[in-house]
Specification:
alpha+beta, Outer membrane efflux proteins (OEP), 13 helices, eight-stranded antiparallel β-sheet, disordered N terminus
Length: 579
């Protein structure tokens, strides 16, 4: 039994059979410490918590940082009782109203309204964020060519068996790799790696147990056909820049639209106020007729029905005034919403008085010249031009994707080995153990249907945009022609309405004189008064429509009405840290 190894962990035990004196080897039971169960238990608990569902039974109550809307606000529908707001309507003031009472009346020229809209209009403020957001896409696309620093640290320790019951010495190894990756605009890349590896073998002295290995290398990869070239690899930057310009064109169109809405609302308010003046004059004239009828009745020259008809006509004019006052309030509210000025709250009863007189004189317009200007200035045409440039670029890139993939690769490396870090780098500087690896890789798809389909799709999209451009140009020509015709028609309406007012006023005066001598009744006078009021309303409508027609012509040509130039600026991009 003396020839058994002492360190094998086995001991002889008697055989189970009483008739056999052979010896079998049974492994000894080693003592296993019980201190290792706690980490294992903790790991099991963490694992169960990770995989078991419903780890957050309170989800939806704000425990994970979410916004929780009250259930009543989401599901309960409350009734509206208008009677409950009768007593509190005048006393309740919104929190957004500025300090101090709003002015009772404000006189505004149209230029001031345009300035206030450019400064405060919410639609415009929302749109001004679009160019800034689009510009971030340009900078993000440019970042694809930024150099990237890479690094890694690894360590290992091991003992390798050399044979039965024999293990080698412990080996400790540590490696550090640092590198720089530089993407190229040509589609290739340059990569510099400097790996450093140190190995320590636990051997007795005077044997050497430590060695350093340094293997810096430089790699260059460049596609020659598909994916090669500056134009193809800067496609992302080019598309992002086109989108950035499109966002600016859209924002400019929004500025023009807001200014056009201001002019529309301004002249609509002008028309509503002038219509109110007409109805008040009609009321005064009808009231005067009522007094005349009463005097005639008292003098015995008229019958009582004339007085009754005059009272009925006066009641009709009161209703017209009520409706006209409501039209004025709604027109003012529309203008206030567009201006969004803090000094003019939307729900305040501030009266806005337009002070800019209407330009009621004839324009001699050249439709062909206006159409040419519109085709050059309309943002819709510019947007289509940018889309065409984008699709043209897509066609070129899709054509490149049909080429075979030919890639050139080259790697240069130097290896240094020494007992110390410095000795390893001394060998590298001598460049004795260097290497050069180069090659060309070819990849040709059989059929190439995917690339051909993408190329066909790009061509069809560009052809579609060309048709859209022609369609938009035709639409612009129609809009210019319609706007010119509308302007001319409104001018003729002004002339006709002015003549109608003159004749209706003469007719009313004649009817009044005839009534005073007893040749006409109150009905005849009221009909003449109504005809005069309708003629005056037609004149007001024609004048306001003529101003709006001028605004529409400016909008149709891609400009704004007025002598001032507008230079809008996008929202400034916020400054954020790099890391």
């Amino acid at each position: 039994m003396s020839n058994l190894p002492r360190d094998t962990g086995f001991q002889p035990v008697p055989a189970t059979s009483s008739g056999d004196n052979s010896v079998v080897q049974k492994p000894r039971r080693e003592h296993v410490p019980r201190t290792g169960y706690k980490p294992v238990s903790q790991a099991c608990v963490l694992f169960l918590l990770a995989i078991l569902p419903g780890c957050f039974p309170d989800a939806g109550t704000g425990g994970t940082g979410e916004l929780v809307v009250p259930r009543q606000q989401l599901r309960q529908i409350d009734p509206l009782d208008l009677r409950s707001s009768i007593a509190t309507t005048q006393a309740t003031q919104p929190s957004t109203q500025p300090a101090g009472p709003p002015p009772a009346e404000v006189s505004l020229p149209i230029e001031e309204c345009r300035r206030m809209a450019l400064a405060n209009n919410l639609d415009l403020q929302v749109q001004l964020f679009t160019p800034a957001i689009a510009h971030t896409s340009v900078t993000a696309a440019e970042a694809q060519f930024e150099a990237v620093f890479v690094a890694s640290v690894n360590g290992a320790t091991s003992r390798t068996p050399l044979g039965p019951d024999t293990v080698g010495p412990r080996t400790n190894e540590a490696s550090v790799t640092a590198g720089l990756q530089l993407p190229l605009q040509t589609g290739g890349s340059i990569q510099l790696n400097v790996p450093s590896d140190v190995v320590h073998v636990d051997v007795p002295r005077p044997q050497v147990g430590t060695s350093w290995t340094e293997s810096p290398n430089l790699s260059f990869v460049q596609p020659l056909l598909r994916g090669g070239g500056v134009y193809v690899n800067t496609q992302g930057i080019r598309i992002a820049f086109y989108e950035f310009q499109r966002s600016q064109a859209t924002t400019k169109l929004e500025v023009i639209r807001v200014l056009t809405d201001v002019d529309h609302a301004y002249w609509q308010l002008f028309a509503a106020r002038e219509a109110l003046k007409v109805h008040k004059k009609e009321y005064d004239s009808t009231n005067a007729q009522l007094e005349r009828a009463r005097r005639q009745l008292n003098a015995g020259k008229a019958a009582e029905p004339d007085v009754v008809r005059a009272e009925s006509g006066l009641a009709d004019t009161v209703e017209n005034i009520i409706v006209a006052e409501n039209d004025v309030r709604q027109a003012q509210r529309t203008l206030k919403r567009i201006l969004n000025d803090p000094s003019l709250p939307l729900d305040a009863r501030t009266t806005i008085v337009p002070t800019t007189p209407p330009a009621a004189f004839l324009y001699d317009l050249d439709p062909a010249r206006l159409t040419s200007a519109a085709l050059n200035q309309r943002m819709e045409m510019l947007d289509l031009e940018l889309q065409l440039a984008e699709q043209t670029s897509n066609v070129a890139v899709a054509r490149n994707s049909m080429l075979p993939l030919v890639t050139f690769q080259y790697t240069y490396g130097v290896t240094g080995l020494g007992k110390t870090f410095g000795r390893a780098w001394d060998m590298i500087w001598e460049r004795t153990p260097d290497s050069h690896h180069f090659g060309v890789q070819l990849e040709v798809p059989i059929g190439n249907e995917a690339a051909r389909s993408q190329y066909q799709s790009a061509i069809l999209r560009r052809m579609q945009l060309l048709s859209s451009k022609q369609q938009e140009a035709l639409q612009i020509r129609q809009e210019i022609a319609n706007a010119v015709d509308t302007l001319q028609t409104d001018w003729e309406r002004i002339i006709a309405a002015h003549e109608r007012v003159r004749l209706s006023a003469r007719t009313r005066d004649v009817e009044v004189r005839q009534f005073n001598v007893g040749n006409r009744t109150t009905t005849d006078v009221l009909i003449a008064e109504a005809d005069l009021a309708n003629a005056q309303l037609s004149e007001v409508s024609a004048i306001s429509d003529y101003q709006i027609a001028q605004v529409d012509i400016a909008f149709a040509t891609g400009t704004v009405l007025g002598a001032s130039h507008v230079d809008w600026q996008p929202v400034k991009e916020p400054r954020v840290p790099r890391y």
